[in-house]
Records
---
Amino acid sequence: MRLRPGHRPPAPVSDLPAAATDLRVRLGGKDVLRDVDLEARAGEVLSLVGPNGAGKSTLLSVLAGDLDAAGGDIELWGLPVSAWSPRAVARRRAVLPQAHHVSFPFGVGDIVEMGRAPWAGTPASAQDESMVRMAMALTETETFAERSFTSLSGGEQARVMLARVIAQDAGLILLDEPTAALDLRHQEMVGRVCRELAEQGRAVVLVVHDLDLAAAYSDRCALLADGRLAACGEPVEVFDAERLSEVYQQPVTVEADPGTGAPRVVPIRR
Amino acid sequence: MTALAARRATSPSRATRVTGLIAVLTAILGLGLLVSGSSGAFELHLDDLAGSIAHRLGLGGTPIEGAGESVLWNIRFPRLVLTAVVGACLGCAGTLMQGMFGNPLAEPGVIGVSAGAAVGAVGAIAAGFTFAGNWTIPLCAFASGLTTVTVVYLLSRSGRRTEVVTLVLTGVAVNGLAGALIGLFIFFADNAEITEITFWQMGSLAQATWQKVAAVAPLAVIGLLLAPRYARLLDLLALGERPARHLGVDVERLRIALIVVVALLTAAAVAVSGVIGFIGLVVPHLLRMSAGPGHRSLIPLSALGGAAVLVWADLAARTVAAPAEVPLGVLTALVGSPFFFWLLRRTRRSQGGWA
């Protein structure tokens, strides 16, 4: 069994990249997600925000197919997740995990090229080189293309993995804390990359802790609290000082960014 | 210059290095076969050797006078061919295992194939089975090796997935059980059987015959031909199971396929040669350091390298203490164990302990 063209991908029956309905997830005998209804729309950046343990990464894992839901439905392009073969879904959905580990010292270029694996043997493989080049340029990783992945710093590794995910050319892109290991400049770079990917018509869903970053670059934000969706909508609507103070159990004020007008969350310090 | 242009500029050097390695390993293997073919208790000149081969191939030349012809064709050549085949199987199986576990310490023995095969062989000797004549012991070893690896796999699965740590620990437990069973067989065996069991356990190719070559060649060839099919998928598996799945790899199916191929390769090798350790550990590791971790070149290289190393090791085994013969498995373990210790320390340091 190799990566052959194999099964024809099922014909999508809707334009909606991902939809979760009445989603419930149990882990260790406890409901970690309940009553979640959420859509990832093409051309949109959707940020999942919320305190630690709220269920952000769990929600992303379910969308990524790593976790099974205990109840409710997950549909990708209108079809239940189970209807997709691994290969077919890999051409439509790319996932950036939180931690990056590579067993053997593969070169950075090799790793990014691995993102093209789902397209091997299809006409799209003609774009392998241009996609890899584009992905490495977007993530500013060309300068260490020749180095081995294991020799890079954590932040550099994270950018290489992001490049791999971009090279996969998927319509639904799931990123679990893509900015966690990055410096200020590269956090902003990830924000711009997400916008660019959305402008290409893809649906981008990311878990992010930095609320200002989420506010500045997202079309919509989903605020999770204790396994439920506390709010979902445009950042201006969701980032309400009272609501955030309650969910995070930390008093905050929300002001408008003087440059962009996007909401900016400032903890109240005494 | 763009990154990809830079990559293209350097990739020929990688290809050149792989070609160079193939040439060097082929030369080492060829030289080993010639030296090993001519040396031993019955000394043969290289030109006699060449003449005899040419004669058999119908290219002129003359057979060697006296017993030499028989020594060469009935004792040395089957042993050389069997050594090369066993070495190729062990080297290739080691690469597959390491890729599958994502760990340079993984060895075919880790999942219990070798120990399982040993149980079958030792059991056959102790019980005095002869249902298939000379084939009885290899057959039993092969069957029990395959059974063991299947059991290990089933035990280590939970849900629809297999965690690597569980698989390794299950392998450890199965290896322990196999050791106990072998001990039990030895306890109940008579003196003649004990001698045979011990020799088999230490690993040796001294009993090579053309029949044994014929017995394992089909299995070995199937395994060696199937292995390169999984090269690309093994590369993706280096990213981890979930990322590999997200890139379209059916990880469960891949693992079953790899287990079957590994069982085929190791059980075939162990069935005719006993337990010869560390070839599957040392050879892939050294080649990975020189050719890079890409499995497309690593799989064929490690098969070739395994054959080359084992041919020279077997030559040493039968000549260093002549006229006596050092068991090959003992020799490879003597050289391989310190290497394993070194690798263990290095891996531990690079991981910051075994968290």
Note: Residues 1-6 of chain B have pLDDT under 50 and may be disordered.
---
Amino acid sequence: MAAPLLVLRNLTVDFHNGERLSRAVDIAEFEIGAGEAVGVVGESGSGKSVTWLAALGLLPTRASVGGSVRIDGQELVGAPAATLERLRGKRIAMIFQDPSSCLNPVHRIGWQLSEALGLHRGLESAAAQAEALRLLDQVGIADARRRLSDYPHQLSGGLNQRVMIAMALAGQPDLLVADEPTTALDATIQAQILVLLRTIRRDTGMALVLISHDLGVVAENVDRVAVMYAGRLVEEAMGADLFGAARHPYTQGLLAALPALTGPRQRLTAIPGTVPDPWSVSSGCRFAPRCPVAEPRCAQQPPPSRRIGLLHRAACHLAVEAGRSVWAMPQAAE
Amino acid sequence: MTALLKAVDLCRDYRVHTGRGLFAAKAILRAVDGVSFEIEAGRTLGLVGESGCGKSTTGKLALGLIAPTSGSVRYRGVAMPPTGSPPWRELRRKMQMVYQDPLGALDRRLPVGVQIMEPLVIHGTLLPNEHRERAAAVMEAVGLLPHQFDRYPHELSGGQRQRVVLARALMTEPNLLVCDEPISALDVSIQAQVVNLLLDLQDRLGIAYLFISHDLRVVRQVSHDVAVMYLGRIVEQGEAESLFAEPAHPYTRALVSAIPVTGGGSRRERLLLQGDPPSPVDVPTGCAFHPRCPFEVAQCRSERPKLEPLPGGHPGGRRVACHRVGEPAFRVAA
């Protein structure tokens, strides 16, 4: 098997706030193969965005990053700014939730695209213009030539997100990290953007990390899914395995909390309590306070990451059987 | 039996500037255009649509928070008094509103208990010494703990704040709650808690809801009937389960097909719309949906379709505004 494109080892991110320290991310091991599409699911504060901001060196200085993130053997954590600048955009590009706040409001779309092309590929004037036009075409913007001289405020949210994607593609990256790319968009526009990302991946063979809080968005668009909770990876599996046979109580809870689209309506299974305070310290499983089957050891020892099947791992003390939901057990009664 | 709330042919216009400067041309933006609906006591009408379709304006019109340009709202058969008049204030006790952002709806400098009691102070219904008692009862009903009475909004989690907002709305024992995206700002695992709470409250207190949301899964979970809005008009209306199982209007079909699902299973219809919703200032002629509709014919461009019962009879009193919905080949033409 070929070496993975990106390897994450013992990555930790700590935020300092005066005397206090909070560990926002603590991931022992995570890999992404070339051309692979991986989904990262989690609630707010789960560290799903911070992980990738840390990998790209985009966090403020009050965050300290430990461990290692390598892309094709090249270390990113602690790398000098010049090295990171060469890698950002060219090897790994990132797009964010709100496109209009990422685009510069006082420059035309064409100018901003040409700037990215100049930085990443050394293209200038006419060549950059032509390439910018091609990129806008690639992301499905009709009438691309006229759009080049538009300002971001003249475009809708969906079009702006397409421009962001075009800009991310400017450096021909090997990996695109899309952080909630469709959360700010309407349902019919979200469907358009997701189809676009699929098409681009098919055409360019680029790997994709799709970060989302929406299990459905992730399920339909990636091969493999990682579920994060309070900074840790709790479960990792191929899409079908995760949505069909989740083993971690948190993943099972997330799936059960989703209203069905067909069949009779049943009462939703709600996960009690709330996401833990990032400043709280706990040596055991972070999900233990909300888990219906937690045992005393869960609060004390960190759960081991157990291999369940091919590419399927879950971090839980209990070996929950396949096809059995802990939320359907009598202990889970509200 | 008369409906709890009956809206007939509601319209609401806004005057907007179409250019820059003081003397720019003015245009009329018709945010809500001929919307009619009924809500029975103890039942839920779900209102769905994309941003800018007028669903929030409809919610405000239903409460009389803004006056309609034309059309009428009747509460228990009695016409809505003019906004701000004493009889309207009296009526408002029975109809309350819950907004999307609980932190924005609460005063950060007051303990939540004081805010929960405020509606009683405004309406002066109970003796002051009974306020605290009633607040404690309502807090218990929405799942807040007694010690949280003295907490400030920032000390509570998002889900707890939304419970505070709900508790405050319930203090005057309303018959109708207009919920405008009540769970959109909450995490997935917390959304299920609030959805269950809303359903429990309806069971116990017989409250009717006008539930406004862009999340079709949640709307299906809570609603008895659903109305789908596009550019200020209702395009399809009917019983919730059958509407999601067999959407008839092309726009509803696209919306339903845009909901991402977990777990492949049955192959669903895929209807991907082109383009963005048009500007509400410049609504297309005929059927407002025709520029994005894959089924449009000449008639759609010239003639506005009426909201009419689905031909051939349909369970759940389905009504659709589409010229082509009666054609036999239409259902499979996607």
Note: Chain B has a mean pLDDT of 89.
